[in-house]
Amino acid sequence: MTQQATTEENINKLIEFRQAVYTHAMTARRDAQFDLLDALVTTGTVSSYAKLSQSSCFRRKWPSIYAAIEDGRIDSPWLRKYLAQFIAQTGICIFALDGSPWPRPSARTLEDRQFVFQASSDVNGGTVTIGYPYSMLEWIVEPHSSWSLPIDTRRVDSVKTAQEVGAEQIQALAEARKAFLETLDIVACDGKYGNCGFLRSIKQLRCGIVARLRRDRTLRREPPPPPAKKKKGRPKVHGQRFAFKEPDTWGPADEVLELQDPRWGKVILERWNQLHELKGADVPYDVVRARVHLERDQPPAALWLAWLAPKSIPSRQEVNVETIWRAYDHRWPIEPGFHFRKETLGWTMPMFQSKEAGDRWTEITALAAWMVYLARPLVEDMPLPWQKPQQRLTPQRVQQSIRPIFTQIASPARSPKQRGKAKGWPKGKPRTPKQRFPVVKKSPVVDKSA
Fold this sequence. Notes:
globular, alpha+beta, 10-stranded mixed beta sheet
């Protein structure tokens, strides 16, 4: 295939993505929303939400950027399904599940604000803040890069936990990708998802789950087979102890692999099959112990992982201990993905007056990240005088060089129409202050099976 044909194919892919989002995802105020999306993609680092109206891509008056979010509508279920089907359909696809807060400590008129963890000084000297927690399920495009693309973004209501929302996201992902029989999807989760309560809600799906475990856990093996002569009482549910801090309880591993990795040095991986928690005998999973940089005099502490196998594994795929460890290792790009959307796209910058408006802006920034990714093969690096050229462009560098591409692509949004001036506030109508809402304090979720 020639370079010209490849370029045309990538341009068509970007155009088709934009047209599908405009036609199906945006169901109200779609023209203003799409102009806002184009302005966000081409502006660079967002210093002010209102200044997005000064972009040449935003063809409307400045109040429309607020109307686009406050009065607009996005078909979230359709968008999640479309994004899940848009990614690779062969091989192994790695997804990452994690959360990120939107701080709103001073917005007393917003309901359902919660105490959420963040490196902030708003509450208790830098451990928590007040705002909205969001659960993010993202596709890891490339390991050890800055590319992480949101598939499913949901605000965690105060009546739910992050684990419950994360389970709903994984279930939706499995349903959307059930037709891709030759693809193995693996979702890598951080430590707060490493418990039988979360794993029970997503077992027997088409997705494999790898989650980090605490280093002080105590699990149980399968019970020994019952004797030939039946005894009275219930059969045993738990076998011998398996304590992470007690090597004498481990026994020989079911799989051991030693390898040399350019990033992690000498690595030894061990795997024990079919362990379970004290209150999770119905959720057996495999445990992986990863030791890295063993060439050092003082290597870091071992990493413990839980592996919940999918309902079935494609015939062309093989899952061994290295596959599981690398799936968790590849989840790191979700962190620079959060940073790009917060610091460059201004995800948590606007101060909207409703939580629903914040949800729509969250999805707009997610779509902007997707369009930056789709434009990556089309742009040429345009470094500023103080920047070094890059071979593998980061999202910031692609966005920095993206404007010439958008001059070649027409917007599906319609041109604005002239309207008269608004009547304003009716004369004599009293103004009432908005209702104030207290901060919701959730009850702590204690994992008693740990």
